[in-house]
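ugh finaly. both done.
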Amino acid sequence: MEIRADDDCRLWTATAGDGDPLVLCHGGPGMWDYFDDLAGILRATARVVRWDQRGCGRSQRDGPYSVTRSIADLDAVRDQLAGPRTALLGHSWGAHLALRYAIEHPERVSHLIYVSGTGIDPERAWHPHYERNLRLRLGTHLDRWKALGDRDRTPAEEREWATLQWSADFADDSKALSHAARMATPWLGINYDCNRAINAEVKQELRTNDLAARCRTLDVPVLIVHGTEDIRPQWAVDSLHEALPHAERVTLTGAGHLPWVEARDAFSRAVATFLAGTTPGR
């Protein structure tokens, strides 16, 4: 179903399951909701609310694209589909969005689940490690990925390039391409204007806003989840974990950037335990 943001932009949404609400925030920026499997896992635990962010996937391609606008859109989703207070689960860029929303509106957030995020360090020291690990993980696909990345691409080539890049986000080489192809089906097209605008703003925000100080005042329980095989280093979130007064951390062995895919049972247990209000096992 569609809802309308406060500026009348149409946002695609879907809900499944029963129980207390849990709003999912996908990564990108510029991508679309890829949480079919995750919603299936969590629907026994919560009433799962999914959405395509502004300009992405099935939502209206209408800016502006900014962190502030994304927070306002998330608030519209929360207000219309989740109620006065909800749990949030954000993945990758969506983890940052969910964190920023909780900082702005802590009274509207019951729990925050921060999955495969990259922390709040202004220098983004994790990024060179990510670039190196990406190339190592691509292995025999590296030359094709580089060749596609260096030229204008047809829609079919764009999907191929993205599938190759996303395959590096999975630890199991034998299944990585099929997992990535599933994310790319249906192919809804990456919004690069959205990607560039929000990434630039996040970099500036990390340099100029003291997010660590704001995190220290966040009176919301937080669960930080990371896979041991994510090509983004786990230490990138150390300072965030230290700044949050009510944070637990779970590291899932053998899982990459989408840990619910490669550590399904452990991920599901950690989330269900956290939402139930007890300490997740490590």
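ok and the 2nd:
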Amino acid sequence: MADTAGRLAALAEGALGAPPPVRIRAWDGSEAGPPDAPALVVRNRRALRRVLWKPGELGMVRAWVAGDLDVEGDLYEVLARLAGLVWERGEGAGEGRVAAALSAVRALREPQARGLAREALTLAGPGLPPAPPPEEAPRRTGVRHSLSRDRDAIHHHYDVGNPFYEHVLGPSMVYSCAYWNASAGTLEQAQEAKLDLVCRKLALREGQRLLDVGCGWGSMVLHAARHYGVRAVGITLSAEQAAYARKRVAEEGLTDRIEIRVQDYRRVADGPYDAISSIGMAEHVGSARYLEYARTLYGLLLPGGRLLNHQIARRPLAREEAYRVDEFIDRYVFPDGELAPVGTTVSLLEEAGFEVRDLESLREHYALTLRRWVANLEGHWDEAVRLTSPGRARVWRLYMAASALAFERNRIGVNQLLAIRPGPEGSSGMGRTRGEWTERG
């Protein structure tokens, strides 16, 4: 085993038909691959067993979360070099090249595969498949996107401790794409610009009622009440978020204008509202429930009322994959999350009765936002680990860095859709130009 890294590199090349694009450092201290490339560090045999038992993305992610795999050098560069092997699929293909190659090795389809399998098993050593790291979402039961299952999914992602999110998100406590306009030099300024953009698109005015669906830690309702004089209701399924938001509201002396509820959007019954914001929440709704979601929000608006729906969109690889999210995201980050193409979202909003008046893509803005969050996490790494666990911190670092690359490479996008519930005889009450729509009232 004096040259384990060389054997791992040869195994990868035999399976993939090309040398690995990164340097490999093995548990015995040996190295192989381009000397100027960042290194994929294989800390123990268990990492290889994880990948053999779950070829492709999930096996590699489990090894990463457990600390069996690590990176030396620029994480973004390693992910970019591995993206074509692990995440990106060919047109019509159902799996990445690593998963396809390892599946063939395990199936022993040809003599070469049998030789590779023997070598892989020798390097991996004996043993049963390792248990998934504890940060993986527990097995889900019940109807997908039922009230109770959605509540459990939200709890897994958001109730990991408000102090952890303070380190990652910074003072703004906004967990969605920022808006990097010309005056936004910091993350906090860019988040302030995004909140104000939403308020202007909704044409908020003094005394109006605003419903913020998925209000998080309260930043949107605070901004709208503070700067636009609205009366706001924020709803979330996270008890930890709600407690934090209520504390912020009380500290700013806005309890007479803002109410924070732990409530599902399907249980809101105190409409009508003048405006509704839904920022980074609709990804949790699910394709089977999306029309219900759209109709519910439509029914909560006054005629002429506006909806600002801020939502991540997926580039469909095939018709049957239109709503799929990566297995890593589903198992570790957003259980039961689903992403739809933006055209599907527009169609469903229109089917619910809305008139979609404007669509603005913020794809590049989200890549910049995610890179700032990763930098925040890395800058507070020891504290983040103490507040959660090493595995949880590694999950967040990987998912945010990989998501930044996905936005940069146009694998996913994010869009703000401005829709209106038409007034009498189809009137919109809106100006003829986008500039008029977003002017402060």
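summary for the 2nd one i guess: The longest helix spans residues 390-408.
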